[in-house]
Specification:
8 helices; transmembrane; globular; membrane; transmembrane helix
Length: about 230
């Protein structure tokens, strides 16, 4: 076995390298900022954006937020790739706003005194889910490239089902939610695998990838935790 790291190798182990710690740390900081924005935006007019978009048609909200997230990712990655800090910052602002506004809209349904509790519970659940997926990826000497493909299929399927549910069969909206949630879970596994094996890739690009996947999981878990907490009152 060679001691030289290859650009794309599949290895087993739980020891984290310095670059892996930097990716995880960077994504964690971005996620912490996002959670803070969600809480801050609840007290602003931005909290009603969800009501407006999803009130017209659920698919409209999905398309608008999906476009904002995709656009933000493309801009941020372009900035990182070209070494343009300003462009990268603009992309990150778009991503933070997209997830922050959506999360605030979800959180606004809860009583003010329960909002921090809901965010805290969500953070714990997401941390556990992320740890489980990471443990699974790092414990297996195999590629997870197919998870990226499956994630795309889940996203597309979810969008299609939500479109039908918006105008024809509302019961399908729950199926669409599950598919999109599954898409983010698979995307998270894929991004973690990229960090594990694609060691010559840009730390900035991988940080963005992990952050988006975690944020996507977070806003879906947030909705589930919200329902649970409200059901207990």
């Amino acid at each position: 076995m060679s001691s030289v790291e290859t650009p794309h190798e599949t290895a087993r182990g739980f020891g984290l390298s310095g670059r892996e710690v930097r990716v995880i740390g960077g994504a964690s900081v971005l996620m912490a900022i996002n959670v803070a924005l969600m809480y801050a935006f609840v007290a602003t007019p931005l909290a009603v954006v969800n009501d407006y978009l999803f009130g017209i048609a659920p698919i409209l909200g999905v398309v608008v937020y999906g476009a904002a997230i995709t656009g933000g990712q493309l801009v941020a990655e372009r900035g990182v790739t070209n070494g343009d800090t300003g462009i990268a910052f603009v992309g990150m602002v778009l991503l933070q706003l997209a997830f922050g506004v959506f999360g605030a809209g979800v959180l606004s349904v809860a009583p003010a005194d329960a909002q921090l509790q809901i965010l805290g519970l969500t953070a714990v659940v997401v941390a556990v889910v992320t740890a489980l997926i990471s443990g699974y990826v790092y414990a297996r000497s195999t590629t997870f490239e197919h998870w990226g493909k499956f994630a795309n299929f889940a996203f597309l399927g979810g969008i299609g089902v939500i479109a039908i549910g918006s105008f024809v069969l509302p019961e399908l909206l729950l199926v669409g939610f599950v598919l999109v949630f599954l898409g983010f879970l698979l995307r998270l596994g894929y991004e973690i695998w990229q960090v594990r094996d694609n060691r010559n890739a840009s730390i900035g690009l991988q940080t963005i990838g992990v952050y988006i996947a975690v944020a996507g999981v977070f806003v879906h878990v947030l909705q589930l935790v919200l329902r649970y907490v409200l059901s207990q009152e």
